[in-house]
Amino acid sequence: MRVCLLLMRTPSSDEDAERMLGILRSTEVQGTEVAVYLLGDGVLYARKGQTGYLGLNLSNTPEKNSVRASARDLRARGISDGDLELGVEIIEDLEGLFIEDVMERAERVFTW
Amino acid sequence: MVESSKKKTVTMMLFSPPFGNQYADHLCRVAERALDKGYAVEIFLYGDAVHAQMTEQNPKLFFPVGEAVKRLIEKGAVVKSCEICSIARGYIKGELKDGKKDYSSTKVINGVNFCSIYGFVDMLSRADRVLSFGGA
Amino acid sequence: MSNLLIEIVHSPFGHENAYAGLFVAMAWASMGNDVTVVLREEGVHTGRKGQVNPFENINLPPTEKQVNELLEVGGRVVADRQALQMRGIRAEELINGVAVLDVSEIRGLMVECGEKFLSF
Lengths: 112, 136, 120
Known about the structure:
The structure holds three protein chains of three kinds. Chain A is α/β, with parallel strands linked by helices. Helix content of chain A is 26%, strand content 22%. Chain A has three helices and five strands; from the N terminus they run E-H-E-E-H-E-H-E. Chain B is an alpha/beta fold. The mean pLDDT of chain B is 94. Chains in contact: A-B, A-C, B-C.
């Protein structure tokens, strides 16, 4: 099953992070592929070097998952390619890519 | 582009008012791209989000939510606003007039309609996909 | 009819989120549809019983009544076990009918029942 997550903010606690990204990290939900879209303040989550509940830890997630961040929001926040965790794709038209994924491929979509 | 003979519908709920955060901005941008790609878009303004319907919004430096809502309506989006939330916040009286509810207002963007929570349930039941902006 | 999954993460009264989410849940359920309300973080307080006249006391509607009515029409209300434990909320404090689920079960529930999802 394909799941899309649209994150428009960063988590504010362990609980919040579990709520927002638990599916990405879950080994219990077998056969699930997760596409994460970072929009607005959500792009802050993609910065490398964050720890604790702010650490995306993409290296620990299956390859079938993806993380994409809005180029416009990264630029506005002064975050460049080199500031991002490895594996984060930068997308100019994130909204367009997201909506097409949601409408044509995903079976579940969760937004925060 | 999606074939117009069978348009998929995305229904979006906004639960945050404009300007205090970016949720209204994000909803408007996603909605516009959905319309561009040929999807049908329905938007429900709930709680404080009904403030997005106010006409005469004039942000100097912020994303112009009012203009975006007008543009979405012009492009074919259905925008409905929670009736009781709008009455509570002074946009409409919603009283019965000649057997129908009076939704007239000089404060609301032309093309925004009102419905009860059952109207929202109807939108949800018809939607192919549902997106939530600004809840939690 | 498809499932509706409503997540509530705010406690009642301080924000209108709990009331608003339950309002949608009840309307959806009253039309014969399946609804699951998931209480997480501070939202688990929405599952506690014992509210005393919130309208008379603080001019706000009683969410406990909403939860009870929702359960009566077949809606499902579940609370995050870890969130309950962190907040020292014991099982006997919960409204009768509110189920408790582990995080892993909630993840599964989101995928299984989250065809349509709203977060409050």
